[in-house]
Amino acid sequence: DRRADSKPSNPFKMPSDEEIFSLRDDERARKEEERRRFLTLPVHEKTTWSSRAGSTSKNVLHEDEDEALKDVDTKRKSKFGGLGSAADNAYRQERHREKENMTDFIEKKRQMFLVQMSLDTKRAEIRKLEEQAQQREEALRKSEQMLEEDSSRFELFLKMNDQKAVDAIRKAEAETKNKQDKVQEIKKLNAQIAAVKSEMAKYEESLEECQAYKRFMDELTPQEYIQEQHEAHQSEVEEKRQARKAARASAREVEDRQTEEEFLSEMEALKNVKGKRPDPKVLQQKEGEHQARLAQRTKDREKEDKDDESWDPDEGKPWEPKMYFKKTQQLL
């Protein structure tokens, strides 16, 4: 029984709840002590949380683990005495090995993450370079296409320019030929004009000679004959005026009769509307319009009559009596 009582307990078993709560209280007290110590430090020795977290995270982790192990060892020594020293050494070695394995695992994970991030960056860069190369190829293809289009347009322009030059030469030759033809035609027309002017000059000389003879014949003509011819001409003019007046009067009678018949038929139609009595106002308005048209027609006819009185059948041409001497024997 004493052997059983003096046999140390298993050091690898899970700690009890009391030990876990005791470790938590110790950790809380340690952090409070560290906070108080940090508050008492001078300003130049204080650091920010990010610098402490980035530079001393591993050291703090190791220190926390070492302090936790020391607390567990102290408690176990106080509880089990010297019996658990060998177990404590084995536990510490195992914890150290696990810590190394965990550190290596974290380091490998970190390296894997860095390698994966490097691969992702390189892939993104390769993809970006491929996109840039594709864009440059597309731009090059478009530039080549535009260059081909410009070349084809330039060739078409040259062809059109050559065709225009040929057409211009042909047109210039045609214009030159037309000009020569026109010059020849102008020369012919000038020759014809000169011939006509020469002939007109001859006719003018003959006309002047005939007019001289006519004036001489008029001076020999008896005044009684001239008076008779003048009176005959006046009678002829008056007859033409009367004939014109008679024709106009006949046309006016036909127009008046037709207008009166149209007015009467219109008034009769307004009076004989079936199922409706004639409106006196409408009849009166139609009557007024008819009278206004008649008054306007009367004014127009008066103007026409005045024009007939001054109408000249000769249309402004000077009147000359007929030749009295028709045979040469009358001059003897």
What does this structure look like?
This protein has helices at residues 2-6, 17-39, 49-55, 57-80, 85-220, 223-271, 280-309. With 332 residues, it is an all-alpha fold. It is elongated and about 185 Å long.
Largest sheet: none
Order of helices and strands: HHHHHHH
Helix content: over 70%
- End-to-end Cα distance, whole Å, is 210 Å
Strand content of the residues, in percent?
under 5%
Q: What is the mean pLDDT?
A: 77
**What count of helical segments does DSSP give?**
7
Structure keywords:
mainly alpha, single chain, elongated, 7 helices, 332 residues
Compact description:
The chain is mainly α. The protein contains 7 helices and no strands.
Break the fold down into its secondary structure elements and pairings.
Blueprint: H1 2-6, H2 17-39, H3 49-55, H4 57-80, H5 85-220, H6 223-271, H7 280-309
Helix pairs in contact: 2-4, 6-7
